[in-house]
Design a protein that fits this description.
The complex is a heterodimer of chains A (about 325) and B (about 350). Chain A is an all-alpha fold. Chain A has a single domain, classed as Glycosyltransferase (Alpha/alpha barrel). Chain A has helices at about 25-30, 40-45, 50-60, 70-80, 100-110, 115-120, 125-135, 155-165, 175-185, 200-215, 220-230, 250-260, 270-280, 300-310, 325-335; strands spanning about 290, 295, 320, 325. In chain A, strand 1 and strand 2 form a beta hairpin. In chain A, helix 8 runs parallel beside helix 10 (about 200-215). Classes of the chains: A mainly alpha (about 325), B mainly alpha (about 350). Chain B: It comes from Ophiobolus disseminans.
Chain lengths: ~325, ~350
């Protein structure tokens, strides 16, 4: 999956008055990403390849066209990123890392391929689970991204996400992880990457997501956090990630998914946000950008469409705000 | 697509064969250059470099060359990676490896494997850590939002055991992007790692950052970390008073600014002071008797909270919330209406 930006640009003037989601264009855009390997940016984004597949695949499911990426080839690629120790690298030849391991598990879950994993690799799921569990810091409960030890609430959330999809949460100390997330709560109601780090919508998503998976939303001051999250909406309808920053389509996801988990989604103006997201489309070549006038890419395409799904845009599959995966798939994995 | 794969496989065959001469000619003629690079400098190759004659590059195993995974590199990058895989396979740590990692990082600084190998190489060679930091500085400035560079810096400075020179470097970084999350997180790590909480320069620097841009939320967050968040226990009354006065001055400069209002509430709560402490201050920006002259929705918000806690000010609280829902922050009308609903609930008695 190419993460190269473009070719299209999100429209401004050419946008019709009556706004709509260009489903077919976006499907074709995601499909076309695979044919762009001769571009410079393709290999510059190699370190995100497995993430890119997850974004593209999720967007296609939400758009109702999961079949357009060949399942067999996708699986081949995912398995070729799996290391002996149970971790996934971003692409073949890259070291294993938590972020790609989570994407790998999410793709396997979406493709309903855990059984094929276990056929190929003996106790495959357990192996992946152990790789993740080994990255938990026994003292603080948080997680590192790899053996080199960079720690961040992103990794903690990723660990709980992947483990719960595989039914292996018992491999880690969930209570300790929960206490660590709790220690990252800030004076303004938000959460950061580590205790004391500035509140940031992306990190709020990871912390609220982790607490939801652990069943400990009781630790969140949901009114204060909900208020902070709703303050992210700007007059143009778009959402930003931190106070006094610019709006960006991807925050439609980080902010709204958190609000959905807290049952506060109605605290923002959904109509205005829908309009803003639709303005970020390229109506001709497909794809969404961070804001109108910028180049489209698969990351913003996925999170824009996921945001529209949370806003109940007609015709889209329902998204699970905790996992950023189709709800039908998380239901199958979690049995609830 | 088929033609492309054919050419690619053909090139790979050549690359792995012993036809060094032909390969060299192809490179010289630029035939193998699939993609033009953005760099202006001459590309660097290893196959015709005497110093690397003993190394046989290892090919990329990209999962069997099926269409979804096949990756096209520039030949320069591809060759350098082949040599990196080869030296990693034999655990070589040497000056030439250090140069190779630098070369690859210059082409693709987000490739985390190459950073990790560099971090292993530095101590093996006994390279002075300060030299590594000196090398790292311009690289970091070129790639402001790269995670790997910051992690590498953490590792080196932690091993070095001194934050000397780091504040100057951080200032240079923040000149490019004054709200860069990596930089501020790194600054917090320095404060904690080297216990700079009571160093006057740290608070002065934070004040300078706020002075430069009173809307910089990262700077306000750092101040909170220094004064309250990173410390144990509740702040003294004296300290709370100093911070409240400091923040009032900042708010008077720009009343419609979330960060200092959040900060003010945070200090009041940490010091366990009643919110009414800042009632008169909030009234400077939003007097309910003059609804046309509201200078800050944050002041209205705060007043609504204060009135809601008072015995007989329910009507004022409702008025403030109505102004927010209809005039001063209508995009969040549902939230303000929710707050109005709370006014009718029985108060919890402490």
């Amino acid at each position: 999956m190419s993460l190269a930006s473009g070719p299209g640009r999100a429209g401004m003037s050419s946008m019709p008055d009556e706004m709509q989601l260009f489903v077919d264009k976006h499907v074709r855009y995601i499909q076309s990403l695979d044919t762009r390997k001769d571009e410079l940016e393709y290999w510059l984004t190699e370190h995100l390849r497995l993430n890119g597949l997850y974004w593209g695949l999720t967007a296609l499911h939400l758009l109702g066209h999961p079949e357009v990426l060949p399942r067999g080839e996708l699986l081949e690629f995912v398995f070729s990123c799996l290391h002996e120790d149970g971790g996934f690298g971003a692409a073949p030849g890259h070291d294993a890392h938590m972020l790609y391991t989570v994407s790998g598990v999410q793709i396997l879950a979406t493709l309903d391929a855990f059984a094929e994993l276990d056929e190929r690799v003996k106790d495959g799921r357990l192996k992946i689970g152990k790789f993740i569990a080994n990255l938990q810091d026994p003292d603080t409960g948080t997680f590192a991204g790899d053996e080199w030890g960079e720690r961040d609430t992103r990794f903690l959330y990723g660990a709980l996400n992947a483990l719960s999809l595989m039914g292996l949460l018992h491999l880690v100390d969930v209570e300790k992880a929960v206490q660590h997330v709790h220690s990252c709560a800030n004076f303004d109601g938000g959460y950061g990457t580590s205790p004391g780090a500035e509140s940031h919508s992306g990190q709020v998503f990871t912390c609220v997501g982790a607490l939801t998976i652990a069943g400990r939303l009781d630790l969140v001051n949901s009114e204060k956090l909900g208020a902070w999250l709703s303050e992210r909406q700007l007059k143009n309808g778009g959402l930003n990630g931190r106070p006094e920053k610019k709006e960006d389509v991807c925050y439609s996801w980080w902010v709204m998914s958190s609000m959905a988990m807290l049952d506060k989604l109605h605290w923002i103006d959904g109509d205005k946000l829908t309009k803003f997201i639709l303005q970020c489309q390229d109506p001709e070549m497909g794809g969404l950008a961070d804001r109108p006038g910028d180049m489209v890419d698969v990351f913003h395409t996925n999170f824009g469409i996921a945001g529209l799904s949370l806003l109940k845009y007609p015709g889209l599959e329902e998204i699970d705000p905790v996992y950023c995966m189709p709800r039908s798939i998380t239901k199958r994995c979690l049995g609830k | 697509m088929a033609a492309y794969n054919f050419i690619r496989n053909w090139l790979l065959t050549i690359f792995h064969s012993s036809l060094h001469l032909l390969r060299a000619i192809l490179y010289r003629l630029n035939i193998v250059r699939l993609i033009p690079t953005k760099k202006n400098s001459m590309p660097k190759y290893y196959h015709d470099d005497e110093a690397w004659a003993d190394i046989e590059p290892l090919p990329q195993d990209d999962g069997g060359l099926h269409p979804l995974a096949a990756i096209a590199y520039t030949d320069e990058y591809s060759e350098a990676m082949g040599y990196l895989r080869a030296v990693m396979a034999k655990n070589e740590f040497s000056e030439r490896v250090l140069g190779l990692t630098e070369h690859i990082i210059s082409m693709n600084p987000a490739h985390y494997t190459v950073w990790l190998y560099r971090a292993k190489t530095i101590p093996e060679l006994g390279i002075p850590l300060k030299d590594e930091i000196a090398w790292l500085n311009p690289t970091a400035l070129k790639h402001l939002k790269n995670y790997q560079i910051w992690h590498h810096r953490h590792t080196i400075i932690d091993a070095l055991g001194s934050p000397e020179g780091e504040p100057e470097f951080i200032s240079t970084m923040l000149e490019q992007d004054s709200k860069n999350y990596h930089v501020w997180s790194y600054r917090q790590w320095l404060v904690k790692r080297f216990d700079l909480f009571n160093k006057p320069e740290e608070l002065e620097w934070t004040a300078d950052m706020i002075e430069t841009d009173v809307r910089n939320n990262s700077a306000w967050n750092h101040r909170y970390y220094l004064v309250v968040g990173g410390r144990d226990g509740k702040p003294s009354q004296e300290l709370a008073k100093r911070e409240i006065e400091y923040t009032k001055t900042a708010i008077r400069k720009a009343p419609q600014n979330q960060s200092p209002w959040n900060y003010l509430s945070g200090i009041i709560r940490a010091a366990q002071l009643p919110k009414s402490t800042i009632k008169d201050f909030a009234l400077e920006f939003a007097d309910l008797d003059r609804p046309d002259e509201v200078y800050s929705s944050h002041a209205l918000d705060l007043l609504a909270e204060i009135y809601a806690e008072e015995e007989s000010s329910r009507a004022e609280a409702e008025k403030a919330l109505n102004l927010l829902a209809t005039r001063y922050d209508p995009i969040r009308a549902n939230y303000w209406n929710f707050r109005k609903g709370l006014l009718d609930q029985p108060k919890l008695t402490a």
